């Protein structure tokens, strides 16, 4: 199982200008009741953050939206070559649509 988390807040300038409603996306993997959020920071820097179920509720309270993918297989992605948070999420779910470049477009495609 996999969870894709979307946020309407970011500290980066370009997503504020070019992205629509959602400014950031972060994939969350679920393995044996262990949640790991993959946070894209910049090119070559993806941080793995362990989460608890309680943390999901905290993120919901801060405006994050979640899309639950029940039968999604987690694909291995070379995180040192990822250019954006959208590319990271698309790679982890195995999506190869080149026209999807913003978190809002990804959300509309998979919801």
Helix content: 25-40%
**String of helices and strands:** EHEEEHEHH
The gross shape turns out to be globular
* Beta-strand content bin: 25-35%
Number of continuous helical runs: 4
The number of distinct β-strands equals: 5
The quaternary structure here is: single chain
- Taking all Cα atoms into account, the compactness measure Rg is 13 Å
For the largest sheet, list the strands in their spatial order.
Answer: 4-3-2-1-5
Distance, first to last CA: 15 Å
Low-confidence segments, given as residue ranges, are none
Mean pLDDT: 91
Structural class: alpha+beta
- In this structure, how is the largest beta sheet organized? 5 strands, antiparallel
Quick overview:
The chain has helices spanning 13-18, 53-61, 85-93, 103-110; strands spanning 2-7, 24-31, 34-42, 45-51, 65-69.
Describe the structure.
The protein has 4 helices and 5 strands, in the order E-H-E-E-E-H-E-H-H. With 111 residues, it is α+β, with helices and mostly antiparallel strands. Strands 4-3-2-1-5 form a 5-stranded antiparallel β-sheet. The longest helix is centred in the middle third of the chain and has 9 residues. The model has no long low-confidence stretch (mean pLDDT 91).
List the helices and strands and how they pair.
Layout: E1 2-7, H1 13-18, E2 24-31, E3 34-42, E4 45-51, H2 53-61, E5 65-69, H3 85-93, H4 103-110
Antiparallel strand pairs: 1-2, 1-5, 2-3, 3-4
